[in-house]
């Protein structure tokens, strides 16, 4: 069977949740919140997927303006297909969809941190995250 890559091909919420579980990314995503999962799929600007025999085995899901910044919010590859080049190809195809000045930006899972520098990403220590339970401070200073 051949591996097939697709750009913005429909993915069901169940397929997405299954892939997250099978890639270990489900440990860091709200997979129990179906409405959130549906929103993540529905509101993505760019999804590059990998299919093997009709099964979703990889996905690069991004939010982007296509010209300056592309946030690669999920890079998931099924455990039985990891270390086969699928993740690299998903990122390569994602980057090919973007304009010539567009940067690919992501937050690495702790276990994958070394992977990204190995394939050419530059580390940027200036990332900041504001969780939903936190509020913007109104304090001056």
Strand order of the largest sheet: 1-2-3-4-5
Which segments are poorly predicted (pLDDT under 50) over 5 or more consecutive residues? none
- By CATH, the architecture is named 3-Layer(aba) Sandwich
- Distance from first to last alpha carbon: 60 Å
CATH homologous superfamily label:
Gcn5-related N-acetyltransferase (GNAT)
Within the CATH hierarchy, at the fold level, what is the topology? Aminopeptidase
Radius of gyration: 16 Å
Q: Give the integer mean of the pLDDT values.
A: 93
Subunit arrangement of the protein: single chain
Protein name: GCN5 family acetyltransferase
Organism: Sedimenticola thiotaurini
InterPro entries: Acetyltransferase_Butenolide (IPR053144), Acyl_CoA_acyltransferase (IPR016181), GNAT_dom (IPR000182)
GO molecular function, one term: acyltransferase activity, transferring groups other than amino-acyl groups
Overview of this structure, please?
This protein has one domain (3-118): Aminopeptidase (3-Layer(aba) Sandwich). Helix content is 26%, strand content 24%. It has helices spanning 13-23, 34-42, 86-96, 113-118, and strands spanning 3-7, 46-52, 55-64, 69-77, 103-105. It has a 5-stranded mixed sheet with strand order 1-2-3-4-5.
């Amino acid at each position: 069977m051949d591996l097939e890559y697709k750009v913005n091909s429909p993915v069901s919420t169940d397929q997405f949740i299954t892939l997250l579980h099978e890639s270990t990314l489900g440990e860091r995503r709200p997979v129990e919140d179906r409405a959130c999962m549906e929103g993540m799929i529905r509101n993505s600007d760019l999804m590059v997927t990998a299919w093997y025999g009709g099964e979703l085995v990889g996905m690069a899901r991004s939010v982007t303006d296509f010209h300056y910044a592309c946030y690669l919010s999920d890079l998931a590859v099924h455990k039985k297909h990891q270390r086969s080049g699928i993740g690299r190809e998903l990122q390569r195809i994602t980057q090919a969809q973007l304009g010539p000045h567009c940067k690919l930006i992501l937050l690495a899972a702790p276990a994958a941190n070394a992977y990204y520098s190995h394939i050419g990403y530059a580390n940027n220590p200036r990332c900041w995250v504001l969780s939903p339970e936190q509020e913007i401070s109104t304090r001056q200073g």
